[in-house]
Amino acid sequence: MKGMVVYYSKTGSTGVVAERLAEKLGFAVEGLEDKKPRPSAAPVLSGILNLTVALRDPLPDIKNADLIVLVTPIWAWHPTPQMSTFVKKVGISGKKVFLVGVGAGVPPIKRPCQDLQGGSVRRVEK
Questions:
Q1: Cβ-proximal residues to 6 (8 Å cutoff; 6+ apart), any chain
Q2: How far apart are CA 3 and CA 36, in angstroms?
Q3: What is this structure's pTM?
Q4: Would you state the pLDDT for residue 3?
Q5: DSSP code at position 122
Q6: What whole-number distance in Å separates Cα of residue 5 and Cα of residue 36?
Q7: Is residue 56, in this structure, part of any structural domain at all?
Q8: CA nearest neighbour of 70 among 123, 17, 125
Q9: Is residue 5 in some structural domain?
Q10: What is the pLDDT of residues 27-37, one digit of tens each?
Q11: Which residues of the chain have pLDDT under 70?
Q12: Which of 18, 69, 90, 122 has the most CB atoms at less than 10 Å from its CB?
């Protein structure tokens, strides 16, 4: 099975999770980057409003991946705008996708994650 891990990490901690996960699975790993720096208050507001943002090109090419693992911090109970933008731009319809949310708490993120692409979401905790 060919797979890919795609992640966004503002501070680097989510990147560490994504890199280790990709290594364990034997998958390629690609990070998303903002086109320009964002103010520190912007992430929370952007997450709440489900805004899209400008990402640096090229975006990860997922067309040949059978399985995609999306790794994102959780901001204001939502996936980051960067991850939402990526999903909207490349489309994940018809792909097998796992979403890994990285955060300090266990907020009610099921609904916002389903809204990313209309799939079903099951919560797994460790």
A1: 18, 29, 30, 31, 32, 60, 62, 68, 69, 70, 71, 83, 86
A2: 29
A3: 0.79
A4: 95
A5: -
A6: 23
A7: no
A8: 17
A9: no
A10: 999 999 998 87
A11: 38-48, 50, 104-126
A12: 18
Which residues are CB-neighbours of 80 under 8 A, at least 6 positions away? 8, 10, 43, 46, 47, 72, 73, 74
Confidence (pLDDT) at 46: 67
- Is residue 90, in this structure, part of any structural domain at all? yes
**CA 118/CA 122 separation, integer angstroms:** 13
Output the six-digit token pair for 55: 């990402």
111: how many CB neighbours lie within 10 A of its CB?
A: 10
Evaluate whether 32 touches 83 at the Cβ level (below 8 Å): yes
Instruction: State how far the alpha carbon of 54 is from the alpha carbons of 51, 72, 91, 121, 126, in Å.
Output: 10, 16, 16, 27, 33
DSSP code, position 64: T
pLDDT at 60: 94
Considering the domain boundaries, does residue 78 fall inside one?
yes
